[in-house]
């Protein structure tokens, strides 16, 4: 994959340092593969170093301007403000760098969820083709051309590449796929296929059995999700609908008993403008991340 201008510049500046650091961190290479980030580890680290430096300089400029204005007497800010302001460029730069370090793991986790959600349906496709007498190379090649299966399609495309372009045997290609996939369920499926191949078992029977197993587990997961969704719906009605109405009524009663109108209005604004949106965002994010197909 060709590098864009930012990556080329970063590699020219930090290439040697990034290469040394990437050799000390072999896990990064696997994390990038599982996240399907198609760059070398040293290029990825070099880009992170350059991004950290750029963010540091961009944050340092306004801080330096504020300090200069304070020194020239244009501004008069308390000393505590500078204790908070001066470390800001370093903290922001480190935050960007740490975010880039954990980004492959986060993306790999997202891909794993997508693979787990689509794998039962992909296994039905694999079992059907296997029953028709298709070879593993044809099965994964056809799956790699089918966009309905999300990241399962990408995993199949890598296996098909290893088989057809690199000329690897089926067992070696499946072993490599087992190492780079982020999904535990897909790893289990591939390891079972390797065992069936190396022990002389019937691959067609294995695919059919796994398809039935994963469909059964998928139905169980869907039932658990629906039960959890029902609990969340009841909690949503209680927390987001009933509780704010009760608090607004309570504030009205407090006003009638002589409480400060300004304080009551401030609490009302906090409920309507802060607590309600935050609670709705929290429930939406919870449902988003617990949805199997998300």
Element string (H = helix, E = strand): HHHHHHHHHHH
Structural class: mainly alpha
- The tally of strands reads 0
Could you give the distance between the termini? 28 Å
Mean pLDDT: 84
> Low-confidence parts, pLDDT < 50 over ≥5 residues?
none
Radius of gyration: 28 Å
**Proportion of residues in helical segments:** over 70%
Main sheet summary: none
The figure for the number of domains is 3
Morphology? flat
**Percent of residues in β-strands:** under 5%
Alpha plus pi helix count: 11
Q: How is the secondary structure organized here?
A:
Blueprint lengths: L4 H20 L1 H10 L5 H31 L7 H7 L2 H44 L4 H9 L5 H15 L5 H11 L3 H15 L4 H54 L4 H30 L4
Structure description:
This protein has 294 residues and is mainly α. The protein has three domains: 5-110; 112-216; 220-290. Helix content is 84%, strand content 0%. The two termini are 28 Å apart.
